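user: Please review this fold.
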Amino acid sequence: MSTTTDPQESPLTVLGAGPAGLATGFYARKQGLDVRLFEAADAVGGNARTLQMGPFRYDTGAHRFHDKNDAVTADVQALLGDDLRRVDAPSQICWRGRRIDFPLAPYDLLQKLSPSLLAQIAWEQLSIPRVSKDAEHFEEMALQSYGPTLARHFLLNYTEKLWGADATTLSPRVAGDRLEGLDLKTFLLEAFGGPTQKARHLDGSFYYPKHGYGQIAEATADAIGRDRIRTGARITRLSHDDREIRQVTVNDDARVGVDSIVSTLPLTRVLHLLDPPPPEAVRSVAESMRFRHLRLVVLGLDRPRLTANASLYFPERSVPFTRLYEPKNRSPHMAPDDQTVIVLERPCHPHTEAWEQSDDTLRNSAVDLLATQGFIEGDGDVVAVDHRALPFAYPILEVGAHDKANRLKAYLDHFNNLHLLGRSARFTYTHVHNLYARARRLTERIAPRAESVA
């Protein structure tokens, strides 16, 4: 094993160079801190990368940059300049041969659902109680938000497919902000005001980089300095003295001394890496927490466009995929003028048939779905194929997971130089603009400690 390095060579060590790690490195440099990042993959970006397939470009996720924090938006605009562009591309649900706007829009439902179904929905909107802040699980929250008819047709099946769990076992937190703002006032405004009377929560406008979402990661890495980022560097041990993390081991070989350390690794992974290991009770909690993996099928198609949508959702259980996104609808530079590229997502649990099935089987399922939906006539339209596996794509926010995560974070809090940042690290659902804002606040707190040590 190679010799330990002096922690003073870099007062801040960041584990992971996905969005959270890169944001931390970026704002650390703005604070005047030296920083080093260790990333297990061969490239930066984590699950927010843009990849190339011949003339096609696609993202490892249906990512969008939301203009929800003025300071963060300004920072990202400064990084990308004119390459960060505002996009209007709506999403829809594919349901029984129809395309229904998502988030659900009452005016759109009036145009596409039968009178009897609409009558039932309208009655439920008038009679159901408003959303309670103390809903015990996602199903209860969905029923309160939309009523039984909309929830069961469009939300519950989809949610159970996405997370691989019964909706009564999932926390209301899995909804994020998707159910905010839909109340009786919104329903009536849109139902009688027409398509121009869209509520704020239905806004389909967002920012997107010219050359793919991964351009944000690449520009952030350039601002940090590529010499400060080591790829192909898998963390295999976190050595501690019960008060601080003293060393990280990289690739089972190099031991690196650390001062302040920010981990963006999955929360349960951090517990597994600790040496000495945590108490059995802590390990038991960590082992009970689960992540959802993703399989991606990428198809280059010999046609200018497939749809006009940012994403299409498939709530029906008979469809193995949950979502389709078409990168060209975010930026025309993602595919040639006369062709397009689409990505289909299949969520999986590890060690299941869906996770382990062959690429060819998954590809055939994707082509069959497109043909059944009337998008293509068959294999003849497919000119390129790629596959990606994304482990630890989403923390599964089951009922009680929030309390479990807090127990694990409370244990890790007694290491006074260890900080956790990111979706997987804190076991929560969040967006990139939130990660950048939290990274800025975190580095502002770390900077005085680094200066005092120096």
In short: Residues 199-203 have pLDDT under 50 and may be disordered.
